[in-house]
């Protein structure tokens, strides 16, 4: 060992010792903060499925590759980081000796080949990511940039370090080539040999370059250890547990569909026994999120995919899912010293810590502890009320997040406290909640008019209890029973089921709202009241049947989602299908035969709660394809004047209509109206018909079309109505003309 190697070895050991000590301290702090969260025992089951999903999403990059170029580049960088960590380890041998290398595998040609090409592709990958970040700088792209609000220096720093480490790896190999100490052939390591041909035969160059590589790597570790909220770096460690502990590891849309039940101390809250002084009602303080919530906040990469897809953000509203998560993260870590010292408020609002426990705390931590979780700028709130109430719960953020953050659950948990304890929510939504409690529907319509939609049909619609047997219980829903446009869909579905010979029955006045708008706005009490009533009614209707024969067909995706995904939490186990799924089956099996092609072209709007939340994308398109072709071959061919034309944002990336999350009953006062944005996109396709599969979407898009003064050029109708026009053109006209109008 020469004098240069002695110096490089000492320096490498010193900076590594500092970096490791700081890293251990940082990890300990992060673990302590995450452990402050509430228990969530549901996260530990089905470890096999969790492991499989975690490996698929990390090693396979299944979510990242939805953005193909970015995903591919990130995969090479990720693999480079993991595999080339071996080369950082190898550098510790190279600072000691210019001929040093990894024991055992260091001399294998295969090892040299793999690391060479991973390094080359890693350089290309990080170059692509740097170019994308520079091209999307917020000061250039403004609100359209997904990096708005991200801590840009951190992104630049991490990418620069990755690039520098990769370059230093090739320099080390180059000096080995130049000094004839390189063990790998040219065909396996072409770039290393090319670099070596340009370098001098400096014997100590290997050790010096190795020291620089170690110094860069350890500087990175020191910087991130001093910045525990630096998600752009820490996500490469935290993503693995965050994905492993996702809510539904085997589901395609984990964190979508059903909401988490309202929890207290790790158990679902039973309102019959709940006590606000002993049980947690929603989230009022950051430490009342579960530990998984705090892990979510810590894992955020600040990539902005959620922000780029959010309908609120894209229509100039203050909600950005990314910025909401970052605000909660920063607040949690700033408040952590106070909480770790024993501070915090109990459920009655009393301070839990003694004066002695808080005496030596930093004043900034104490000030952070006084901030309300929800509050405007004047009150110093962490999350502004306009941010909280802008969410449509469409799930675009959850769908796009590469590390499986569950934004919607966290937003609804905060809403629950605001509604149930603070009684603080948009005033116009209060009318809807009172209607749900008093009339069993959000419009406040008389319950005895639930069956009025059946008037004028040329067949009898059977009621449960009036027939001995039926295959499907037709869940009409509040919109389908009371809203004029939705009644046309209800009549069309009933007509088609009758035409296909499907035996079905309705509950009529026995049906009440599923409770979706109450639950999404945060009023879990009203939701459970309605849900328990419906579960009891449905269990009675299906008495004696196995789950597989307890079939429900629903025209509203919100009802479909609640009945199928959430009623199980309250003892209601049913097989629920959306009407487009059933119609697609009936067309596919020949029980419904389209005969009249639809003119003018059709575009389809994916409802959030049918598509993203429940992964039903194909059946509506199959129905429309058959109707467009008038029964000819080809599911998505053209009609006489056009065919099924997709909007730019469709399927998983479909843009919300603006009605979800109980926004249907709240005024949209900030920014551009979401439904108008979607209507403009639909009209840009040139299609004369906008097909929908949801009564909320129908209302919102119809309002948008009328607001644009385009009612003469564009028609918004349900998929069922489109099919009925193709199967029975005259019957369709009669069903729509004779639809009862609310008086």
Task: Describe the structure in your own words.
Helices cover 51% and strands 4% of the residues. It has 31 helices and 9 strands. The strands form 3 sheets. The protein has a 4-stranded parallel β-sheet, with helices on both faces. β5 (551-554), α25 and β6 form a beta-alpha-beta unit.
Pick out its properties.
743 residues, four-stranded parallel beta sheet, three-stranded parallel beta sheet, 31 helices, globular, mainly alpha
Helical residue percent band: 40-55%
Shape: globular
Number of strands: 9
The strand line-up of the biggest sheet is: 4-3-5-6
For the sheet with most strands, the description reads: 4 strands, parallel
Q: Could you give the distance between the termini?
A: 96 Å
Task: Extract low-pLDDT stretches.
Answer: 633-642
User: Averaged pLDDT, please?
Assistant: 91
**Structural class by secondary-structure content:** mainly alpha
- Computed over alpha carbons, the radius of gyration is 30 Å
Task: Indicate the proportion of strand residues.
Answer: under 5%
Q: Please identify the oligomeric state.
A: single chain
- Tally of individual helices: 31
